C-alpha cells in the first residue's frame, strides 16, 4: 500500500478553477489520490455563477455510503454544501464512518459575489459541521457570517473572531486574511488558532493578480492532502500556503476566461517545495 486517499465533498465548477476540479488538481499535485462526492452542480465561469443545481441529500448520502463502505479515506476536504439537507448528510457520514483529518472550508459566496450556500443553511454549517471538523478555514466574510458579527478589519479582530469560533465548538480555526486591505495589503496573512497554543500567523507576499478564483478551495485541499503526510496541522498549513502562493504567482500564465481567472496548479513546483522539507 502506498499513498493517501483524499476525499473532496464539494460542488462542481465547470471552469475548473474552484470546487471539486480545483480540489482534484491540488490533491494530485501534492501526491494524494483524489476521490469526490459531488454536492451541487454550478453553471459557472471565471465571470460568475449563472445557476446552481443542488444534489438531493439522499443522493449525497448514497455517494458517501457507496464510497466509504469500500475505500479507506485518509483525509477529507469539505467545500460547497448548498443546503441544510446536504449538511445533515455529510455530518452523519463523518460520525458513522469516523472520518479523520476533516478540513471544512465553509464556502458561502463565490469570488464573483454569487451565493453558494443558502442563508438559512449557515446555522447548519455552524452547528452540525463546525464541531465535527478538525480544522475550519473561513475567510473574513465567512467568519463574520458564522458569528453574526461585522467583518474583521485587522489581524487583532481576526484573532478575536477565531477565538469566538473555538468557543462555538471548532477544534482549530485557520482564519484566512486574503480579504484584508489597508496596511496589511502587501502581505496575505492567515491566522491559525487552536486551544492551548498561542495563535500562529502564516504570511505570504501578496501576489499582484486579479486571478484569485479558487484560492480558498486550493488552500483547504492542500491542507487535507498534506495532513496525512505531515507531523502536525501547522506544518500542513505552512506547506499548503507555500503551494497556493506559488500557484497564485503563475495564475496570469493561464487564459481560462475573461473574469477572475484561476490559480495555476503545476506538479513540478511541488517537487521543488517538497525537496526543501
Ligand atoms: N493576492 C494574494 N496573494 C497571496 N495570497 C493570497 C492572495 N489572495 C488570497 N491569498 C491567500 O489565499 C488564501 C485564500 O484567501 P481568502 O481570499 O482569504 O479566502 P477565499 O479564497 O476563501 O475568499 C489565503 O491563504 C490568503 O492568504
Ligand atoms: C463549486 C464552487 N465551490 C467553491 C467556490 C468558491 O471558490 P472561490 O471563493 O475561490 O470563488 C466556487 N466558486 N465554486
UniProtKB/TrEMBL annotation:
Transferase is among the record's keywords: yes
Matches recorded under InterPro entries: HMP/HMP-P_kinase_dom (IPR004399), PM/HMP-P_kinase-1 (IPR013749), Ribokinase-like (IPR029056)
Keyword Kinase in annotation: yes
GO CC terms: cytosol
Keywords of this entry: ATP-binding, Kinase, Nucleotide-binding, Thiamine biosynthesis, Transferase
GO MF annotation list: ATP binding; hydroxymethylpyrimidine kinase activity; phosphomethylpyrimidine kinase activity
Pathway where this protein functions: Cofactor biosynthesis; thiamine diphosphate biosynthesis; 4-amino-2-methyl-5-diphosphomethylpyrimidine from 5-amino-1-(5-phospho-D-ribosyl)imidazole: step 3/3
Gene3D superfamilies named in the record: 3.40.1190.20
Classification via Pfam families: Phos_pyr_kin
Catalytic reaction(s) noted: 4-amino-5-hydroxymethyl-2-methylpyrimidine + ATP = 4-amino-2-methyl-5-(phosphooxymethyl)pyrimidine + ADP + H(+); 4-amino-2-methyl-5-(phosphooxymethyl)pyrimidine + ATP = 4-amino-2-methyl-5-(diphosphooxymethyl)pyrimidine + ADP
Transmembrane segments: none
GO biological process: thiamine biosynthetic process; thiamine diphosphate biosynthetic process
Span of domain Pyridoxamine kinase/Phosphomethylpyrimidine kinase: 13-264
Family matches, as PANTHER family: HYDROXYMETHYLPYRIMIDINE_PHOSPHOMETHYLPYRIMIDINE KINASE THI20-RELATED (PTHR20858:SF17), PHOSPHOMETHYLPYRIMIDINE KINASE (PTHR20858)
Main function: Catalyzes the phosphorylation of hydroxymethylpyrimidine phosphate (HMP-P) to HMP-PP, and of HMP to HMP-P.
Protein name: Bifunctional hydroxymethylpyrimidine kinase/phosphomethylpyrimidine kinase
Lineage: Bacteria, Bacillati, Actinomycetota, Actinomycetes, Streptosporangiales
Amino acid at each position: 500500500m502506498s499513498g493517501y486517499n483524499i476525499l473532496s465533498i464539494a460542488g462542481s465548477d465547470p471552469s475548473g478553477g474552484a470546487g471539486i476540479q480545483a480540489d482534484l488538481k491540488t490533491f494530485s499535485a501534492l501526491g494524494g489520490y483524489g476521490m469526490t462526492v459531488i454536492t451541487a452542480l454550478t453553471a459557472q465561469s471565471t465571470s460568475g455563477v449563472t445557476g446552481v443545481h443542488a444534489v438531493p441529500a439522499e443522493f449525497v448520502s448514497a455517494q458517501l455510503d457507496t464510497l466509504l463502505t469500500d475505500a479507506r479515506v485518509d483525509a477529507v476536504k469539505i467545500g460547497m454544501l448548498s443546503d441544510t439537507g446536504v449538511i445533515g448528510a455529510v455530518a452523519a457520514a463523518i460520525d458513522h464512518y469516523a472520518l479523520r483529518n476533516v478540513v471544512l472550508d465553509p464556502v458561502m459566496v463565490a469570488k464573483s459575489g454569487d451565493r453558494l450556500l443558502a442563508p438559512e443553511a449557515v446555522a447548519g454549517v455552524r452547528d452540525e459541521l463546525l464541531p465535527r471538523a478538525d480544522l475550519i478555514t473561513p475567510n473574513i466574510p465567512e467568519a463574520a457570517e458564522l458569528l453574526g458579527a461585522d467583518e474583521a478589519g485587522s489581524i487583532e479582530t481576526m484573532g478575536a473572531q477565531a477565538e469566538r469560533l473555538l468557543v462555538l465548538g471548532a477544534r482549530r480555526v485557520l482564519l484566512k486574511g486574503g480579504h484584508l486591505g489597508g496596511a496589511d495589503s502587501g502581505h496575505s496573512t492567515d491566522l491559525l488558532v487552536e486551544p492551548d497554543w498561542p495563535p500562529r500567523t502564516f504570511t505570504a507576499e501578496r501576489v499582484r493578480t486579479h486571478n484569485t478564483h479558487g484560492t480558498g478551495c486550493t488552500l483547504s485541499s492542500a491542507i487535507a492532502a498534506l495532513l496525512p503526510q505531515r507531523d502536525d496541522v501547522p506544518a500542513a498549513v505552512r506547506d499548503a500556503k507555500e503551494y497556493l502562493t506559488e500557484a497564485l504567482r503563475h495564475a496570469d500564465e493561464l487564459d481560462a476566461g475573461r473574469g477572475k481567472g484561476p490559480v495555476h496548479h503545476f506538479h513540478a513546483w511541488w517537487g521543488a517545495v517538497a525537496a526543501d522539507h
